[in-house]
Fold:
Amino acid sequence: MMIPFFPDFTPVSLDIRETLHPALMNAKDGVSEFTFANLYLFRRRYNYKISREQDGNILISGEHDGKKFFTTPCAVPSESVLLALFAGHDYWKGISDSVLENKFPLLEKLGIIISEDRDNFDYLYNTSDLALLSGKKFHKKRNLVNAFLLSYPDHEEKSLSTEYLPQAITILERWRQDKGSDGDYIAAREALELSSEIKLTGMICFVNKHPAGYCLGEYVAGGSMFALHFEKCIDEYKGIYQAVNQFFAASLPQECIYINREQDLGDEGLRQAKMTYRPCGFVKKYTAIKI
Structure:
């Protein structure tokens, strides 16, 4: 199925992956939301729809909290298309640095006001930092991993192939039960069930032959970055989250320089937790309105 040209939009469906994925995969900044898999898994939550300009530039429309937004993951649209998008939407969201590059004079001329969206900054980590956990700044994380290794010597890690999907679902169901709420359960379950179709990859960890934790995500930014979309573990295994984090980072190829652990959505507890892993930077994002 072809993606229609603007002003027509189509819902996100599996049959547009072949067209949509290459453009998003090569977007320079590696914004975690704007991968085919993420758009598909959250298509109902945000009512995502896709269009494109004549030159192929991807346009995305969505809804959140009763307002319509659009985003342009690869490039700023032409002036006429940009104005038409503002006419039909409340705001422009998820704008990354490379998209904004050299466009400020045009946007200022059109009366478009850009603001940082700190709650949606993606956290970036050096893959080598998370794999090695060396130095004083990681001593607490390293201690938790060491405690896990001592407590559970009979552990093993496996690539999260289709063979181990039932065990990963067992972990997810237990996570949901322990949490007492769904959180991102629906998307996480579908991500496992469709991991082959939407090309997600990850790792699963077993303790004493029992499934204990897993992570799942995909390569972005041309393969130089891995976006970690889901990380679910059973809390009774102390240090399991830190162990899975390190094991998976150590398994990534050398050309994958960064791990993108997504945003904190303004949750202060989540922000503090993400900062404890000492990010090396952020994928900054901006929102814009037209006055």
